[in-house]
Design brief:
Elements lengths: L20 H9 L5 E7 L2 E6 H18 L9 E5 L4 H12 L3 E4 L6 H10 L4 E4 L4 H4 L2 H4 L5 E4 L13 H20 L8 H4 L7 E6 L9 E5 H14 L7 E4 L6 H12 L3 E4 L6 H8 L3 E4 L1 H17 L3 H16 L5 H4 L1 H6 L6 E4 L6 H9 L3 E7 L6 E4 L17 E10 L5 E9 L5 E2 L3 H7 L6 E9 L5 E6 L4 E2 L5 E2 L1 H8 L5 E11 L2 E10 L1 H7 L3 H16 L10 E4 L18
Parallel strand pairs: 1-10, 3-4, 3-5, 5-6, 9-10, 11-12, 12-13, 23-24
Antiparallel strand pairs: 1-2, 7-8, 8-17, 13-14, 15-16, 16-18, 18-19, 20-21, 22-23
Amino acid sequence: MKYTVKNHKVLKRDLPNPTDARNYLQIIAKWNEKPAIFWKEHGEAKNITFHDFSEMCWHFAAGLRKQFAGVPDIDVRIALIGETSVNWLAAYMGTLAAGYVAIPMDKELAPAEICKFLESVDATALVHSATFKDTFGNIAADHPTVKYAIPFGTEDVQSEYVLPYNTILETGTAYYEACTAALANGEENEDTAWLTAPVDTERMAEMLFTSGTTGTSKCVMLSQKNIFAVIANATECTEFTDSDVLVSVLPIHHTYELACFFAGLSLGTQFCINDSLRNVMKNFKEYRPTALVLVPLFVNTMYKKIVSEAQRSGKGKVLEMGLKIAGVMGRVGIDLSNTLFKDIREAFGGRLVKIICGGARLDPAMISTFDRFGIAIYEGFGITECSPLVAVTPYYRRKCGSVGPAVPCCEIRIDGRDIGENGYKAGEIQVKGDNVMLGYYNNPEANEAAFTEDGWFRTGDVGYLDEDKYLYITGRMKSVIVLDNGKNVFPEEIEEYLEPISLIAESVVVGREENGSTVLTAVVFPSADAAAAAGLDNAGVQEAIQKEITALNKQLPSFKQIHKIEFRTTEFEKTTSRKIKRHLV
């Protein structure tokens, strides 16, 4: 008998429904002196209240307004790079509250690639953590567009190109207090105008890079309407409350993590920052989260650790039997998770009851398995171009295998005529609504390809909707490879790196499924001419290519590295225009 997951009752909550950054800061300030964010600094436990975090964002916003007075708002573009921290979060939300443009950057990219990205979007300043002091501390001295480096910390900096983060906060605090005092006295002037003028929620407010090099990557433009439509919808469709505690594990520059983080804060949820993946289980025990936001890789890893630990301690059979018993009892409404799996639950702090999972496909079996552990998983679907949330399984009506219905701010349609074996029409998933991006920056060709003639965004993913309008993802139209950690890898980019290797005649990069994980694999057809010239036999060619790719991997971020090589003895099958038929590889 198929195990059915347990659904929860609809919560009675006053949903905040933020409309823009300034409105959002007013909302979270209402939680006043309740601690909002917890973290560790040099081993010391620290936290900041909702009120103080709201004020910190306002002060950073005011400091930027003072620094860039007279510059058109759309031209002030603040890039951010670094680990998850209160400083990073306040800089992001403060930039939006100032009316400027935020540019979250992936800290795993190569420095040269980051510099090119910043130039391509005319970035004005780069906010960075101490980790990037040596890399970007002097970036403004010779960068074409970046005028200031804004490092976290209090150190004295003797450079016209460096504007310390704390200096902005100090200047901003005085400026903000003067502006608010003037408004309280009924005074309005040039200094107070930024606080009283209506927020243009339709204008570009955030720039996000997809994946790849500056030659293949696209820059997504989001408005405040996009950003806060998703934050508001995330609060409505998830089970977060003011009694929840979350540990932030995913990189903060991801729209997925950002949306969930700020959605939770608006509901009074407390967040704890995980300081290192090495310490994640230790931090779970210390912070005792009630909920997590994860990608499938983490869920799969958690499960593998549970199984391996059970086997190591000789309790593998006990675990297997416990899951069967929990499944049977769960069907009649009896929850034995705390009795059967107490040790497992304690490993995650003892209070974990829900996980939001997105960014890649999750095996439906994991949902029912974790449900037996007493941990509900709610799967979602999103894409950066949709800010990113498109659909999420509602906590009060889950369906294993589905990513749920469209969130209220958008619509989903299926563009296709094929009827699958399940009786539903399958085709490309297309989206229209307040979450859909403004477009790609300076890329008219990509914009034309991304939207249909009647204005729907083409996700490039394939799926179907059931009779309840629940979405199921069945494949991808694009060649993009989605890794288990949610990272997107464009195979054409990796193939460009392989092209200079003379011993390789042709190559195709694919994602191979092995043991439940996606492995980035290079399928290679060696060059007979180059091999002959080098005096290498078949084994020698393969060994030489392996060495070349190993050297190449050292130059690439970890998520773009090739982990397996397959060698072909024949050319790839091609179209009449000499394009490789990827779907046959």
